[in-house]
Fold these 2 entries.
Entry 1:
Amino acid sequence: MDEQVWQPLTTVEGLPLRGGEGRFRLLETAESGLAYLIHYPAGVGSPTHAHDHDSIVYVLSGKLRGVVDGVEAVLEPGDSVTHPRGVAHRVQALTDAMWVEFKSPLPARPPIA
C-alpha cells in the first residue's frame, strides 16, 4: 500500500459535516468496494444521511455516538457497526476518534469529500 495523504473531510453524501471538519485517507479500492481511514475531532459529526452501499465501521480510537435507523449506541475502540444501504444514520465524535470504514459495493460516486 502506498502512503496516502490525509484529505480534508467536509461533506458526507453531499451534506456538510456539523461542528467542524474531519479528515480521511483512502486506504484501498477494489472492484467490490473500498476502505477509508477517517478521523473526526471531538464534537464533529455527520448529518443524518443514507447511501447506495453498505458501510461497516470499525473504531480504532476515541469514542463515537452513532444512530442507525433511530437506534443510538456509543462506540469505543474495538466496536463495530453496520450502516445498511438506504438506512438513515449519523455519527458524532464524543472525543477525538478514528475508524476504518469499509464500503461495498463500490459507491456510485465518492461518498465523502
Entry 2:
Amino acid sequence: MSVRYLIRLPDPERVRASGEFAFRSQSAEGMASELQDALRGDALFQRWRAIQDDPDSVDPALGVTDAAAVVEGRQHDLHIDLVADTAIAGTVFKHRMRLLAGATWELRDVRTG
C-alpha cells in the first residue's frame, strides 16, 4: 500500500547542516531527488550502517527500499515542502528523514491510498 508523506523543511540552511548524512542540495527539487534516491536505493542506509558500532547487529528491515517511490519538492518563501509517495513503512521513512534532515523537519500529514 502506498503512503503519502507531506514534509516541511522550515529552515533549509539548518537542514543542510544537520549532520554527516544531511541533504546537500540547495533547491527543493534537489532535496526531493536526494530523498527519492534514499527511498529507492540502499546507499544511504549502507553508509549509516557502516559507521555503527556493530553493523552486523543493525536490523536489516531499516534498509528496505521502494523502487517505485516518488518525491516532489516545492519552494515556498523560506521553507521547502516535500511530498513523498512510497510503500516504505513510517518508522523506516522517519529514520531516513532523520539521517537527511536531523530534527529540522516536520511531518505535516500522512495519507494512505
